[in-house]
Amino acid sequence: MSQNLKNLKFQESHEWAVLEGEIVTVGISDYAQHSMGDIVFLDLEPVGTKVKKGESFGAVESVKAASDLFSPVNGEIVEVNEALASEPELLNSAPYETFLVKIKVTNPKDLDDLMDLSAYETFIKE
């Protein structure tokens, strides 16, 4: 599932999101994984968890730090990337091909607040 970066939306907390139908796929940006270093563990909420925009749906731990992961939308987790339980390093090698969770979105307009690629690139340079 290689993402076209132009289709992604980004949060200031470095999660990316893409809407397909009523499902939002969420991952972390290349900038985030690079800043964190080697990712060693993920703690993600299970399928069926209701999430709120801006609230944590899990955490990612690296050799350098632990960081909360924040939902870009309101909705319900409908899929968790189970491969990350045994291979969290996939996020380091392919951050845009490796999703964290898929969320059935309540309101697709939640994504309107997020940055496009150009705005995100400007944001991370500041």
Structural overview:
The protein is an alpha+beta fold. The protein contains 4 helices and 9 strands. The protein has helices at residues 30-36, 83-86, 90-93, 117-125, and strands at 9-10, 15-20, 23-28, 39-44, 50-51, 56-62, 66-70, 75-80, 101-105. The strands form 2 sheets. The protein has a 6-stranded antiparallel β-sheet with strand order 1-2-3-9-8-5. A 3-stranded antiparallel β-sheet has the order 4-6-7. The protein is globular and about 35 Å long. The termini are far apart.
Reconstruct the topology from this structure.
Blueprint: E1 9-10, E2 15-20, E3 23-28, H1 30-36, E4 39-44, E5 50-51, E6 56-62, E7 66-70, E8 75-80, H2 83-86, H3 90-93, E9 101-105, H4 117-125
Antiparallel strand pairs: 1-2, 2-3, 3-9, 4-6, 5-8, 6-7, 8-9
In short:
This protein is α+β, with helices and mostly antiparallel strands and about 130 residues long.
Descriptive keywords:
globular; alpha+beta; 126 residues; six-stranded antiparallel sheet; 9 strands; 4 helices; three-stranded antiparallel sheet
